[in-house]
């Protein structure tokens, strides 16, 4: 009927979920909405921290959500019964509500998982990325780079590439050129290690273009190694010669 959109659940699904949310208690509705921002799988303790209430006080609300078929137990944690259910709840939030919850979830993750924060860096970066358009570009970049570095350290190069690109996608004229150049260098290295040679070439070329010191120019040049591709080797040679000239 022309109402379908790729970025949100069908209207029929949203209507069904909205009808259920209207019938539950206020506490259950608040819990489900906060959980939808956390993700399809969520820890009750984290949601309780987001809501600023004791986890024990959330038990009646989560039991109610289970009874209404919105969520289901998943070991010690919980999961939305269907991904579309979670998406429909998230779609019901206003922009202001969604942004406020993303901020509260990000802060809760930092507080609750401070001792094991590396395990939660991708989620943390994701929540700050949602806040980037609302004046949190610096924080979004910082956490995306931290998550990317951790991913590369775990040899998860594709994940590192995605996170570095997420950091670079944040528009901020105040971002220091040297910092952006180093992020491009890191992206290039991760891309090459992931087998994405064209991506590595593009990142190295862009890093060399914005390098404002000989040292950064050298780092950009050394992203590329010899490969059976004359065009790539020619570019690597030009970048190395330019760096040596500096």
Write up what this structure looks like.
With 246 residues, the protein is mostly helical. The chain has 13 helices and three strands. Strands 1-3-2 form a three-stranded antiparallel sheet. β2 and β3 form a beta hairpin.
Cα-atom radius of gyration: 22 Å
How many E-type strands? 3
Strand content: under 5%
Helical fraction equals: 55-70%
Structural class: mainly alpha
Features:
13 helices; 246 residues; mainly alpha; elongated
Task: Give me a quick take on this structure.
The protein has 13 helices and three strands, in the order ααβααββααααααααα. It is mostly helical and 246 residues long.
List the helices and strands and how they pair.
Elements: H1 11-23, H2 26-38, E1 41-42, H3 44-51, H4 59-67, E2 71-74, E3 77-80, H5 83-91, H6 95-112, H7 121-131, H8 137-153, H9 157-168, H10 177-193, H11 197-210, H12 214-221, H13 230-245
Antiparallel strand pairs: 1-3, 2-3
Helix pairs in contact: 1-5, 2-3, 2-4, 2-5, 3-6, 6-7, 7-8, 8-9, 9-10, 10-11, 11-12, 12-13
């Amino acid at each position: 009927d022309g109402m379908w959109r790729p970025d949100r659940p069908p209207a029929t699904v949203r209507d069904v979920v909205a009808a259920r949310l209207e019938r539950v208690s206020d506490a259950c509705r608040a819990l489900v909405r906060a959980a939808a921002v956390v993700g399809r799988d969520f820890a009750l303790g984290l949601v309780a921290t987001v809501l600023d209430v004791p986890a024990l006080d959330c038990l009646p609300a989560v039991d109610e959500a289970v009874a209404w078929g919105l969520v289901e137990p998943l070991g010690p944690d919980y999961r939305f019964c269907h991904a579309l259910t979670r998406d429909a709840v998230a779609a019901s939030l206003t922009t202001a509500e969604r942004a406020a919850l993303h901020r509260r979830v990000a802060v809760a993750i930092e507080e609750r998982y401070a001792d094991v924060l590396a395990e939660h860096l991708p989620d943390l970066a994701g929540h700050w990325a949602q806040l980037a358009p609302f004046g949190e570009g610096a924080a979004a970049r910082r956490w995306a780079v931290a998550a990317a570095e951790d991913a590369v350290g775990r040899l998860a190069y594709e994940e590192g590439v995605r996170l570095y690109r997420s950091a670079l996608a944040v528009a901020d004229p105040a971002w220091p050129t040297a910092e952006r150049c180093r992020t491009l260098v890191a992206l290039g290295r991760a891309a090459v290690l992931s087998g994405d040679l064209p991506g590595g070439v593009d990142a190295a070329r862009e890093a060399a273009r914005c390098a404002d010191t000989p040292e950064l120019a050298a780092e950009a040049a050394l992203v590329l190694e010899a490969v059976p591709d004359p065009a790539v080797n020619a570019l690597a040679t030009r970048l190395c010669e330019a760096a040596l000239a500096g």
